[in-house]
């Protein structure tokens, strides 16, 4: 297994994002976890972690200026530095990687319910688009030695996972434990791919 020394997590104030922060902080070789939240001062569960390896930054994914500021000030320098300081030509999370949180809803082949009981057409479209973006980035950034992968985290017990009275299958803790382990196994052959939380290939 190979882990990065620094990690940037968006949506880190709750649910899967918060779970990933906690799980990565369990890995001793991870030196810093940068957790992005829209309103950091309101992210009480995130603030409560309070460790020297955790840095909380402000980023609103619906605001271009906020994304740009966080990208320029925090994300880009780390990504470029990580890739350039790693020896060899391999791709892996120990070098530089962008991991997108996708969903089984992104899969056209698995869509047997149409829009779904909670009217999730826009969500399905957005996740399919995310997978296409990830694959495109994987091709575009291969010369920069940046690995890209998309993960379906499972049907997780979150606000969204239980929307409409649905009964989700796994806890956040179960999801992120598998995700972090799978991320540590990513290699060049996984670049641009779409996987479940156990690193099994998902149908597009």
Automatic annotation (TrEMBL):
Can you tell which superkingdom this protein's organism belongs to? Eukaryota
Q: Which InterPro entries match?
A: Fungal_SecMetab_SDRs, NAD(P)-bd_dom_sf, SDR_fam
Please give the Gene3D superfamilies that the UniProt record associates with this protein.
NAD(P)-binding Rossmann-like Domain
Offer a single GO CC term for the protein: cytoplasm
* GO molecular function terms noted in the UniProt entry: oxidoreductase activity
Q: Which residues form a coiled coil?
A: none
Name it: C-factor
User: Which species is this UniProt entry from?
Assistant: Angiostrongylus costaricensis
């Amino acid at each position: 297994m190979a882990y990065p020394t620094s990690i940037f997590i968006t949506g880190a104030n709750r649910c899967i994002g918060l779970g990933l922060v906690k799980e990565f902080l369990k890995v001793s070789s991870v030196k810093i976890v940068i957790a992005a939240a829209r309103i950091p001062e309101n992210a009480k569960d995130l603030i409560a972690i309070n460790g020297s390896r955790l840095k909380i930054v402000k980023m609103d994914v619906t605001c271009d200026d906020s994304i740009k500021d966080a990208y320029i000030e925090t994300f880009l320098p780390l990504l470029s530095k990580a890739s350039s300081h790693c020896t060899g030509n391999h791709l892996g999370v120990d070098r530089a990687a962008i991991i997108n949180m996708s969903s089984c809803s992104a899969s056209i082949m698995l869509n047997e319910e149409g829009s779904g009981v909670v009217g999730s057409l826009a969500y399905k479209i957005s996740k399919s688009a995310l997978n296409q973006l990830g694959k495109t980035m994987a091709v575009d950034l291969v010369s920069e030695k940046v690995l890209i992968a998309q993960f379906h985290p499972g049907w997780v017990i979150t606000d969204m996972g239980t929307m409409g009275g649905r009964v989700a299958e796994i806890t956040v803790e179960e999801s992120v434990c598998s995700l972090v382990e799978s991320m540590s196994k990513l290699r060049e052959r996984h670049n641009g791919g779409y996987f479940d939380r156990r690193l099994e290939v998902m149908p597009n």
